[in-house]
Design brief:
By secondary structure, the protein is of the alpha+beta class. The chain contains 8 helices and 7 strands. Strands 3-4-5-7-6 form a 5-stranded mixed β-barrel. Helix 4 packs across helix 8 and helix 5 packs across helix 6.
């Protein structure tokens, strides 16, 4: 007696047919994965873009730009001191760049170098308020992020992470030592007349610690 149509409809695929469909599906998936895989050779532009940030190379290229920008923004120290004494907020907004705990200000002045300690020297600038201490840092250790932050043109979004951002600041300080301070006898500045262009972060209005981008000794 022949099977009824209903019984034929209930009969599923054979085990062999199911296995064949499964194998075919795996093959299709593997082919798709192979087509979507991009092989990048070590010399390609994509591989170059993935290279780690080199702070030294970056700073060599950018230090002259930073130096020029700070010199362009620099305000005479007497003008800046008077403006800060009259209206600290307004002066900081007019002359400075906001950075972390205080604005970064660019300044220029001439004066006689006083006593020093660990490469940090006082400078007596004529016409400045008597209660205002002006100092410059000359190394060997150059601390802070003045050079990175003072121009307002370098920001965190230009870097991959915080480490690269910090390394950029340190590398600019290294270039300052190599390109500017290495040409000066910074161990014997006391009593010398100097002309300075630099930047400092306004944390204590009565004490400026200037990182010089230009320093000449008379």
């Amino acid at each position: 007696m022949s099977e009824s149509p209903a019984r034929r409809r209930r009969t599923g695929l054979t085990r062999s047919a199911k296995r064949a469909i499964l194998v075919a599906g795996v093959v299709v998936l593997l082919v798709a994965m192979g087509l979507s895989t991009k092989v990048v050779s070590s010399g390609s532009s994509a591989a170059a873009g993935a290279q780690a940030f080199n702070p030294t190379t970056w700073a060599k290229e950018n230090f002259p730009k930073v130096q020029a920008a700070i010199e362009k923004r620099a305000v005479d120290a007497r003008v800046l001191a008077a403006a800060l004494a009259k209206d600290p907020t307004g002066a900081a907004k007019k002359y400075g760049v906001q950075a972390g705990t205080g604005p970064e200000l660019c300044v220029k002045f001439s004066g006689v170098v006083g006593k020093g300690d660990a490469g940090i020297y006082e400078v007596k600038v004529p016409g400045m308020p008597k209660n205002l201490l002006v100092r410059i840092q000359t190394g060997p250790a150059i601390n802070g992020t003045d050079l990175r932050d003072a121009t307002g043109t370098i920001n965190f979004g230009q870097f991959t992470n915080q480490i690269d951002y910090q390394n950029a600041a340190a590398a600019l300080n290294d270039q300052l030592r190599k390109q500017v301070l290495s040409k000066i006898d910074t161990a014997h500045l006391t009593g010398k007349q100097v002309t300075v262009v630099g930047a400092f972060q306004l944390i204590n209005p009565d004490a400026w610690l200037v990182t010089p981008v230009k320093l000449s000794v008379a």
